[in-house]
Design a protein that fits this description.
Chain lengths: 251, 217
């Protein structure tokens, strides 16, 4: 079953076409790594999937529901309530964590389930604590984010997204803002999630992660999907010269 | 000393009027300022444009002029012309004026919050109002406390402008006593009163800053 179907996604910043009619679909339980040079449009593409950016053409379907489509009248998004409900199926982890600094770690996790799902605090605290144990940060539950290291912050951000029980997880360069020695702990949490068959789309510069954890690797450059395939094939026998050039530059 | 004790009664009465003026103005202008700030940063230009003009008007003309206009001039304005008693007229002038300043302070505070906070809230499904109330504004409060504290202290002293409407606040009462007794000691007593009020405010804002800074590293 397809969890995400994106067709002919077109996106312009003024005169600049940043996404050139690209299409990608993601199966349930699949882990797709999106790689490519900076400015290739990979983050923009990810942000279009959950409507942090709006598209200028194309169609996006999430979990069988249409988020946006383009007809004769132009781009039409689902009505606001539906759009928000559809986008909630996707959790997101950002490069800059975006934790809420005025809330403790535990409060960061329970805020959205309380406000958005209307759940009682007591009902969600056990789940939130279980998630914190899972990412190894239970003992930090009452700390404010400012007291955490980058790697810890990102693990809290992953737990916070999971607290909303998403069907899909989107990762936007989750380790790019981290010191090299802190990326491991975040990648481990992501790998664990992949092993539990979470559907994941990961924009990353971590070639090791893409190679070992992803089921499929997509190489983007200049707003296009240049090449995609199984990691073993794409990394060892890249077909396109731009893919070859990029992979060489990463070594 | 005996003299000072003898003038304390009327001066305390003046202080009560000053404090009433102060607290009512704060209670009105802070929420009004917040609403104006949200309108000012709104994407709807039918909201942001008029508020821009409003802020320009009230920051661009003397508070004294606004006070005099609302008391003496407003009754002659067609359609909205109403005659207000001195106290309500002063409250309206102060509240409208301070709301303009608070609006700019809140606007700066809201815009200083990182865009990522809105995105973090949005991907979790929070609505605009939930995001503002639970995520953005709690962070704004901490950031705007110092400038708000500044304005508040200024307001304590600005209330003395109501002498122009012949209202007996602390300063006008004091001046009356000075003229009656040919003695300038009451000025010093009045200064001590104002200093006491601003001291309490300074101390209160320090407490608030401390409370809201708990989450800073």
């Amino acid at each position: 079953m397809k969890k995400i179907v994106a067709e002919n996604i077109d996106k312009w910043y003024g005169q600049l076409e940043v996404l050139k009619k690209i299409s990608l679909s993601v199966d349930a339980g699949e882990v797709v790594a999106v790689i490519g040079p900076s400015g290739s449009g990979k983050s923009t593409f990810l942000r279009c999937l959950n409507r942090l950016e709006e598209i200028d053409g194309g169609r996006i379907e999430v979990d069988g529901e249409v988020l946006v489509e383009t007809g004769a009248a132009g781009v039409v998004y689902a009505p606001d309530a539906d759009s928000r409900r559809i986008c909630r199926k996707m959790g997101m982890v950002f490069q800059q964590f975006n934790l809420f600094p005025h809330l403790t770690v535990l409060e960061n996790l329970i805020e959205a389930p309380m406000l958005v799902k209307g759940l009682a605090k007591e009902a969600i605290i056990p789940e939130a604590e279980a998630l914190l144990r899972k990412v190894g940060l239970f003992e930090k539950r009452d700390n404010y984010p400012a007291r955490l290291s980058g790697g810890q912050k990102q693990r809290v951000a992953i737990a916070r997204a999971l607290a909303m029980k998403p069907e899909i997880m989107l990762f936007d360069e989750p380790t790019s803002a981290l010191d090299p020695e802190l990326t491991g702990e975040v990648l481990r949490a992501m790998r664990q999630l992949a092993e539990e068959h979470m559907t994941m789309v990961v924009v990353t510069h971590e070639m090791g992660f893409a190679r070992e954890v992803a089921n499929r690797v997509v190489f983007m450059d200049q707003g296009e999907i240049v090449e995609e395939g199984k990691p073993a094939e794409l990394f060892s026998r890249p077909q396109h010269p731009r893919t070859q050039a990029f992979l060489n530059s990463m070594l | 000393m005996e003299y000072v004790l003898s003038i304390l009664g009327p001066m305390l009465e003046g202080t009560v009027l000053t404090l009433q003026m102060f607290f009512i103005t704060i209670a009105l202008s802070l929420p009004l300022g917040l609403v104006l700030a949200l309108a000012r940063i709104s994407h709807f230009s039918f909201l942001s444009k008029p508020v821009g003009v409003y802020i320009w008007l009230f920051r661009g003309t003397p508070l004294m002029l606004q006070l005099l206009f609302i008391y003496f001039g407003l009754p002659f304005v067609p359609v909205i012309g109403v005659r207000l008693e001195d106290f309500p007229a002063a409250v309206v002038a102060f509240a409208l004026n301070y709301a303009a300043y608070f609006a700019e302070i809140f606007r700066a505070g809201i815009q200083s919050v990182d865009r990522g906070q809105y995105e973090g809230a949005k991907v979790l499904g929070l609505s605009y109002l939930q995001t503002m109330r639970r995520i953005i504004l709690p962070q704004v409060i901490y950031r705007v406390l110092p400038p708000v504290s500044n304005e508040t202290i200024t307001l304590v002293k600005d209330t003395s402008l109501i002498y122009a409407l012949a209202m007996n606040d602390l300063l006008r009462t004091t001046r009356g006593i000075v003229q009656r007794d040919f003695n300038t000691t009451p000025f010093i007593v009045a200064a001590v009163f104002y200093l006491a009020m601003t001291l309490v405010l300074t101390w209160g804002f320090q407490k608030l800053e401390k409370k809201y800074s708990a989450y800073e590293a």
